[in-house]
Design a protein that fits this description.
Blueprint: H1 7-15, E1 19-24, H2 61-71, E2 80-85, H3 95-106, E3 111-118, H4 125-135, E4 140-147, H5 151-156, H6 163-175, E5 180-184, H7 193-196
Parallel strand pairs: 1-2, 2-3, 3-4, 4-5
Helix pairs in contact: 3-4
Length: 197
């Protein structure tokens, strides 16, 4: 028996079946790569924007979902799926384009939830409004790469924003009842157990 509620258990209780994340590509970039903030990116982010399992953005969102379902077909039978926009910064684009791709994903009959990976500094008011509207169709989660609360480490990993930006984004998302998944890297150089706690 686990001493914590795993995501797998939570999703099975919520939906009554196995739920699997499908990595999709928005085709968007990141302000920490395109020169807006930097052109170097965060030190932990790969060339694929940490989304190596995503299908090519050359396909429509519906095509990407179907291809991703096929890729995981040996792992899941009669289950449901989360449309996961993972690579790069998936709210860093024109609002009309964001509405088009997120709406296409959330309206797919096998999708039970929309999960969007993004940066805290790429959530302007019009994007929050869009997420709020989508959250009334099916659940929407925002995945934020905090990585660390240590400002010295944040500069070292080239994160590109102070902790206050993260706190503001979480408060604004919470105000419209959008759950936030926080990514933390344990064991960053120079950090110790106290930093992790």
């Amino acid at each position: 028996m686990n001493r914590y509620n795993s995501l797998n258990s939570y999703l099975k209780n919520q939906y009554g079946c196995k739920v699997y994340k499908l990595s999709l590509s928005s085709g968007l970039s990141c302000p920490n790569r395109d020169g807006s903030l930097s052109d170097m990116g965060c030190i932990f982010c790969s060339n694929g924007g940490s989304g190596e399992f995503a299908t090519s953005c050359n396909y429509s969102i519906t095509e990407q979902i179907e291809m991703a379902k096929e890729r995981v077909s040996t792992k899941i039978k009669n289950g449901k799926y989360i449309a996961y926009f993972q690579s790069f910064t998936n709210t860093y684009g024109n609002i009309d384009y964001l509405e088009k791709i997120f709406t296409e994903a959330i309206n797919h009959p096998d999708i039970v939830c929309l999960s969007i990976g993004t940066r805290h500094d790429c959530l302007p008011d019009d994007v929050i409004d869009l997420l709020n509207r989508l959250n009334k169709i099916k659940p929407v989660w925002i995945e934020l790469g905090l990585q660390t609360i240590n400002e010295t480490t944040a500069r070292y990993i080239r994160r590109g924003y102070p902790l206050a930006v993260f706190e503001d984004a979480v408060a604004r998302l919470s105000a419209v009842d959008i759950p936030v998944v926080v990514h933390v890297i344990v064991g960053l150089p120079g950090e110790n157990a106290n930093d992790n706690l």
